[in-house]
Amino acid sequence: MKQKILIAGAGGFIGGHLVKYFRDKGKYDIVCADIKPLEYWFQLFDNNKNFSLDLKDYENCLKVSKDIDYIFNMACNMGGMGFIENNKAECMMSVLINANLLRASIKNKVKKYLFSSSACVYNSQKQLKTFVPGLKETDAYPADPEDGYGWEKLFSERMCRHFYEDFGLETRVIRYHNVYGPMGTFDGGREKAPAALCRKIIEAVNKDKKKIDVWGDGKQTRSFLYIDDCIEGTLKVFNSKFYEVFNVGSEEQVSINQMIEMIEEIANQKFEKNYQLDKPKGVRGRCSDNSLIRSKLGWDNKTTLKEGLQKTYKWIDEQIKSGSNIDKFTKSH
Ligand code: GDD
């Protein structure tokens, strides 16, 4: 009997890559669920069971988790700063997905459940300066996370812990730090900085423009995790024996201006910057500290930001040039 895996949020960015990973292994029955209509899924494979439905609904959670061994819950209503800062209530509604999938996991005797949390849970007071020390897992408390989205993630992390302690459900929790790469959104309102800035530079090259818009003053910092490393880290945590939370991120902290310089090198062209101080900026500085996952699971980020940006830039450039089927990556669904 093949093991049965449910990927919740299979139509999204990390979810789509996870589906591909398991499909390439060829030894699993894969059930995929996402609220988006199938034509908008970033990656869609015919030989899986694909459900377009709302996992905020308990009955739907029961349906897709029936006879499932393992759940990867990547489903949530999210995006980059432009989305989460302006849709706090929508982001918080994702708590229903996690609550109902956890309940259904108990009912359907699921063996293991992974929850995708976020660096947005970290205490904002630790992220007030540029080039902050890396955030350790313990830095989420005392709680003062990103408003809306971060509170939902922190609460859902906590629910996973108590479902383990009270009901014995094996839960795993990962705090992802700004994951980027091919097959993700690059326009339309949900895009994050790496894809957005690659797209802006590609468009400037194509239209022979000399200036690009940048949100904030460009001095704010982040660390960005390439999707291949993200998938590898996800599997490491999932297959481990630990129910405590782990960072899965990069320790390569850069300012947005430094990231733009890397993209300019890839494009082989420099641009003037129009700094838009009224746009969503989020925290001033953020970076992952990977000490815990390195020491306990032997995982670390491998891809440099420059290498990851080269692949992302190339992919976005190809999408824009071909122009076909790009609605799903450029419109907010
Ligand atoms: N999105 C975007 N688009 N951000 C830009 C742009 C642009 O054109 N130009 C500059 N930025 C700046 C933002 O103002 C912000 O300061 C920084 O780049 C990073 O923005 P995002 O990539 O959108 O989000 P984030 O790093 O603040 O948060 C993201 O990562 C978290 C995990 O680390 C979000 O996706 C969160 O949902 C996620 O939890």
Compact summary:
This protein is 38% helix and 17% strand. The protein is of the alpha/beta class and 333 residues long.
How many beta-strand elements? 13
Uncertain runs are none
**For the report, how would you describe the main beta sheet?**
7 strands, parallel
Distance between the termini: 36 Å
What name does the CATH topology of the largest domain carry? Answer: Rossmann fold
Order of helices and strands: EHEEHEHHHEHEEHEEEHEEHEHHH
CATH class of the largest domain: Alpha Beta
Strand content: 15-25%
- Give the number of domains: 2
Principal-axis shape: globular
Strand order in the largest sheet: 3-2-1-4-5-6-11
* Secondary structure category: alpha/beta
Bound molecules: guanosine-5'-diphosphate-alpha-D-mannose
Describe this structure in words.
- With 333 residues, the protein is α/β, with parallel strands linked by helices.
- It folds into two domains: 3-179 and 224-248, Rossmann fold (3-Layer(aba) Sandwich), CATH 3.40.50.720; 181-222 and 253-286 and 304-330, UDP-galactose 4-epimerase, domain 1.
- It is 38% helix and 17% strand.
- The protein has twelve helices and 13 strands.
- The protein has helices at residues 13-25, 58-64, 81-84, 88-92, 95-107, 149-167, 193-206, 227-238, 256-267, 291-297, 305-322, 327-330, and strands spanning 3-8, 28-34, 49-52, 70-73, 112-118, 170-176, 179-180, 211-215, 221-222, 225-226, 245-248, 254-255, 272-276.
- The longest helix has 19 residues, at 149-167.
- It is globular, with a radius of gyration of 19 Å.
- The mean pLDDT is 97.
- The protein binds guanosine-5'-diphosphate-alpha-D-mannose.
- Guanosine-5'-diphosphate-alpha-D-mannose binds at residues 78, 80-82, 84, 118-120, 149, 176-178, 191-193, 196-197, 214-216, 220, 222, 256, 279-282.
